[in-house]
Specification:
By secondary structure, the protein is an alpha+beta fold. The protein is 21% helix and 37% strand. It starts with 7 loop residues before the first strand and ends with a strand.
């Protein structure tokens, strides 16, 4: 099967998306690695936009997540978005560690390399292929509203964020 056979490449600037619904309610899989070894995790925190005159995605990963190792070691990552029929698979990928489970095998999702070499999923409705441009760590001292820390970081396990240029977008 050729790469992303059932998808149409589309300029990311032409995507007509309801970003808040897409990320917060529909969730996404963040995936990094290669065809030999990869990991994916479900996320509902992130954003899409324009920065440095480029279409970008910003994702957030806690350092203890297994996917963190793959994001750190690779220049590319993908964001895969699915329809509601994949909710159970996304739930599994968000609650089980790739250290203990082969997530694609357990969920029935099939991986595919993207044209630039990221790993994504054939079952997705939308795939964003991203190249890392920048990272930073969320720091407790920078919060202006301390209730965010108490609600979201009771263990002080602050996220690292990654800004990735969207170098490919593919829609079913």
């Amino acid at each position: 099967m050729s790469l992303l056979e059932d998808f149409t490449q589309i300029n990311p600037l032409l995507l007509d998306l309801k970003v808040f619904d897409l990320i917060d309610n529909q969730w996404m899989l963040i995936t990094a690695g290669n065809t030999d070894k990869m990991n994916t995790m479900t996320a509902s925190w992130g954003t899409l936009g324009i920065l440095w005159n480029k279409p970008i995605a910003i994702i957030f990963i806690r350092p203890q997540r297994y996917t963190y190792e793959f994001i750190e070691a690779n220049d590319l990552f993908s964001l895969s978005f699915f329809d509601e029929s994949y909710r159970d698979a996304l739930e599994f990928c968000g609650t089980k560690s790739g250290r203990d489970y082969n997530k694609p095998e357990e969920t029935g999702l099939t991986t595919t390399p993207t044209p630039n070499g990221a790993i994504a999923f054939n079952e997705a409705e939308l795939i964003l292929e991203c190249k890392k441009l920048y990272f930073g760590d969320i720091k407790e001292m920078n919060f202006l509203d301390p209730t965010i820390v108490s609600r979201n970081y009771p263990h002080k396990d602050f996220h690292r964020f990654y800004i990735g240029e969207i170098i490919g977008s593919y829609k079913r």
